UniProtKB/TrEMBL annotation:
Keywords from the named record: Aminotransferase, Pyridoxal phosphate, Transferase
A UniProt-annotated Pfam family: Aminotran_3
Origin superkingdom: Bacteria
Lineage: Bacteria, Bacillati, Actinomycetota, Actinomycetes, Streptosporangiales
Keyword Transferase carried by entry: yes
UniProt GO molecular function: transaminase activity
Cofactors named for this entry: pyridoxal 5'-phosphate
Family assignment from sequence similarity: Belongs to the class-III pyridoxal-phosphate-dependent aminotransferase family.
Transmembrane segments annotated in the record for this chain: none
Name of the molecule in the record: Putrescine aminotransferase
């Protein structure tokens, strides 16, 4: 609702329906006192909902991309026509029928000469789609579990009998759905929720610290024969944007290959954010995986979707992975147009340079200037984290509101918390992950606003 000057006005009387938030389940404990009335590019128009400022509007630079999912920002001139065309022309057949949109997309990505064919040649990999990152990860786990037994007589597959461990990492985040919870090592994510199924064909999870190659080697030397699969985020997101040292991911791939374990890459968050389409990349090129799950940015900010790319030998029992929305024509049209645009415009290459600029500014203007608030800045591409100090972490709610009032939208991640092997505690971390379309000038404005917000927060709360 805008007044004659284009300023958003929020009615907030008790009888008013607009921005009445009572019906929406509160997942957070507290509610941010803002509503969004519209957005263009990376600028979101917010309105204050409560308190003395209610009704005031503010333009906020989006340094989050909707939980890091809107790589092309709002109202993308690429996504809008693709979506419109697909709705008008492409139909809605399910995965049983070979749609033109799906055929086009998969050929462009995985067919001969395709964008991702070097990494995932169609002769070796097959692909399916799910609705969300969590669902994609559930299917990845399912593919790994089903690889252990012969589906015809439901007996253990020869040589896979003893493999009952899924190895995950301290601080990992893969989604909130039941099957994934055992992969998370933090109490808050597990206690009182479904645990791993018992025998037969049960599995256990074990956790090692992320990024410690020597620990991984020692673990595999002792337990490699028991490991069914390793589930890894190429850059740990919820743990606070933890980037592994060079060579670590390739070493994990080697350990898996040599011990007969499957390597599952959770690229739900990292997809198109690290300066590459895939985080499982190093100076040698693609790091081979058995299963890769892509999500978030894959839906270009307008659809919730994910893709599971698995070796052809990995399948589930007959009709065991049927999903109403497996690579529907509209989804494929949006993905295809978005990916093509990212590729043609060189947005990934650009994000590497912008990422360096962003990282430098975050270190120089935040970490160095506000040592009572920030501990460390880490990041690559459009995926950065600024870890809070213990003192600042105690006030995340106020911190976040202050940042929004200073004109920048950021999210906070849990941080890895306590880790084994003497590694230090990782505190909650502010995620600075603007959409890929962010410009150099916007990067500067984001950091300027973070500086303003930090100054005000320090004065008000610490
Ligand atoms: C690494 C990772 N995996 C999986 C998920 C779950 O994805 P979704 O929220 O789409 O279910 C997330 C979401 O934050 C994530 O960051």
């Amino acid at each position: 609702m805008l007044d004659e000057n284009g300023t958003a006005v929020a009615p907030h009387g008790p009888g008013d329906v607009w921005f009445d938030r009572t019906a929406h389940m509160n997942h957070y404990g507290t509610k941010l006192p803002f509503g969004c009335v519209g957005a263009t590019g990376i600028v979101q128009r917010f309105v204050e909902l409560d308190g003395p400022r209610a009704g005031r509007s503010l333009d906020v630079l989006d340094a989050s991309g909707g939980y890091a999912s809107a790589c092309l920002g709002a109202g993308s001139p690429v996504v809008v026509p693709a979506l419109t065309r697909a709705v008008e022309e492409s139909g809605y057949v399910t995965d049983e029928i070979a749609s033109l949109e799906r055929a086009r997309l998969l050929k462009r990505l995985f067919g001969a000469g395709g964008l991702w064919a070097g990494r995932f040649p169609a002769a070796d990999y097959h692909v399916t789609g799910r609705n969300s990152g969590s669902e994609g990860m559930e299917l990845a786990l399912r593919l790994a579990l089903e690889s252990r037994f012969d589906r015809r007589d439901l007996r253990a597959a020869k040589g896979r009998e003893g493999r009952d461990v899924v190895l995950a990492f301290e601080g990992a985040w893969h989604g909130w759905t039941g099957g994934l919870l055992p992969l998370l090592n933090r109490r808050h994510y597990r206690i009182g929720l479904p645990a791993v199924a018992a025998e037969p064909f049960g599995f256990t999870t074990e956790h090692i610290p992320f990024g410690e190659a020597e620990t991984a080697r020692e673990y595999f030397a002792r337990n490699g024969h028991r490991v069914l699969a390793v589930v890894i985020e190429p850059v740990q997101g919820d743990a606070g944007i933890l980037i592994p040292p060079p060579g670590y991911l390739r070493e994990m791939a080697r350990l898996c290959r040599e011990s007969g374990a499957l390597l599952v890459a959770d690229e739900v968050l990292t997809f198109a954010k690290t300066g590459e389409f895939f985080g499982m990349t190093d100076e040698e090129g693609p790091i081979p995986t058995d299963i890769t799950v892509l999500g978030k940015s894959l839906g270009m900010g307008v659809l919730s979707t994910s893709m599971v790319v698995a070796r052809r030998s990995l399948t589930v029992r007959e009709s065991g992975a049927v999903a109403t929305s497996d690579l529907r024509p509209i989804t494929c049209a949006v993905m295809g147009a978005g990916i093509e645009h990212v590729h043609a415009e060189g947005l990934l290459e650009r994000s590497r340079t912008l990422g360096e600029q962003l990282g430098t500014l975050l270190r120089r203007d935040l970490v160095d200037q506000f040592p009572t608030l920030y501990r460390e800045a880490r990041g690559v591409g459009v995926m950065h984290g600024v870890e809070l100090t213990e003192a600042a972490a105690a006030h995340i709610g106020a911190f976040r509101e202050r940042m929004i009032r200073s004109g920048v939208y950021v999210e906070f991640m849990a941080g890895a918390g306590r880790r084994s092997h003497g590694l230090r505690y990782v505190f909650p971390t502010m995620r600075v992950a603007p959409p890929l379309v962010v410009t150099a000038a916007e990067v500067e404005s984001i950091v300027e606003r973070l500086v303003d917000g930090s100054r005000a927060f320090r004065k008000e709360s610490l």
